[in-house]
Specification:
This protein has 85 residues and is an alpha+beta fold. It has a single domain (16-81), classed as Arc Repressor Mutant, subunit A, CATH 1.10.10. The protein is 44% helix and 14% strand. The protein has five helices and three strands. Strands 1-3-2 form a three-stranded antiparallel sheet. Helix 2 (32-38) crosses helix 3. 7% of the residues are buried.
């Protein structure tokens, strides 16, 4: 059944905000790729930034968790670092 009120025009589309992305990512850990998307950076750019000796890098690196060879970030702590909570 077609309901015209449920159809949204392409021009009305709003991409989810950073806060909405964190709400949707209700998992306790996020990947480097997910964090890069939230910060609007490439994965390589994020990795480079995390290697620098800056307050931002130190605070994000403090949220890092390694499970085997994989790197994850604690979602709740990342939200605090980037000012979403």
């Amino acid at each position: 059944m077609y309901e015209p009120n449920l159809v949204r025009h392409v021009s009305e589309y709003q991409p989810p905000s950073e806060v909405e992305q964190f709400v949707q990512a209700s998992k306790p850990l996020i990947t480097t790729k997910q964090l890069a998307e939230i910060l609007s950076r490439s994965v390589e750019g994020l990795r480079f930034s995390l290697q620098q000796d800056t307050e931002f890098a130190r605070s994000l690196n403090a949220t890092k968790v390694k499970l085997g060879r994989r790197v994850y970030f604690r979602t709740a702590q990342v939200a605090k670092v980037i000012g979403l909570s």
